Amino acid sequence: MKAGMPGSDASATRRRPRHARTGADVRDLPIDRDGLHALRRAVAAHAGDLGVPAGQVDDILVVASELAANVVRHGGGRGRLRLWRHGRRLYCQVRDRGPGFGDPNVGSTPPDAVATSGRGIWICRQLCTELIIDSARTDQTGTTVTAVMDLAAEPTEPAGHPGRPAHPHDRRVPHPITRPTVGSGEHYRTDRRGA
Q: What is the pLDDT along the chain (195 residues), one digit of tens a residue?
């Protein structure tokens, strides 16, 4: 998440997300240790059904996986994941019955490079437009975390890659070697000087 984007300040973690409608467009899935692989498959399938651009399906899978793993590890072992779309936004919401976050701004700063844990929420914040955390109050238990992603328009095929959709994170640079046309008498050349 870039500085200045929605969700990058402390107040964003306290806002309530748009509530999901009920019906066929909302997928409600159980979270538990034994079902994490099935959960990932169901999230990928439903994201496709919702028309999520192919390049963003991987991002929502990372976010859903990190949030679900937190439920299993820190949130009482069980919970629910809901996935829905509203306009150009995708919502992935998890709920658990755990003790909640002590810091509503958890994951706002990069984790220590040598830390063995503590990266999941930070990673989610990097991949999402907003991450809304509603933790338990003293008289309640449980946490609801809603990840919000702005969806890109489905990209078109890049030139030179027929049949392969463009991926928004594809930053490959064309290869520096140019192949000559047959019979042109040219030799392979590189962009490196003196080569």
A: 433 344 444 334 444 555 555 555 899 999 999 999 999 999 999 999 999 998 899 999 999 999 999 999 989 999 999 999 999 999 999 999 888 887 878 888 888 888 888 889 999 999 999 999 988 665 677 899 999 999 997 644 444 444 444 444 443 333 333 334 444 444 333 333 344
Q: How much is the pTM?
A: 0.68
Asked if residue 40 is part of any domain, the answer here is yes
| Residues 6 or more apart whose Cβ sits within 8 Å of residue 106 | 121, 133
Residue 183 domain flag: no
Q: What domain range is 63 assigned to?
A: 10-150
Burial label for 112, CB within 10 Å (0-12, 13-18, 19+), is exposed
Q: What is the CATH number of the domain that holds 58?
A: 3.30.565.10
Give Cα separations from 189 to 22, 30, 160, 179, 182 (angstroms). Answer: 60, 57, 19, 8, 14
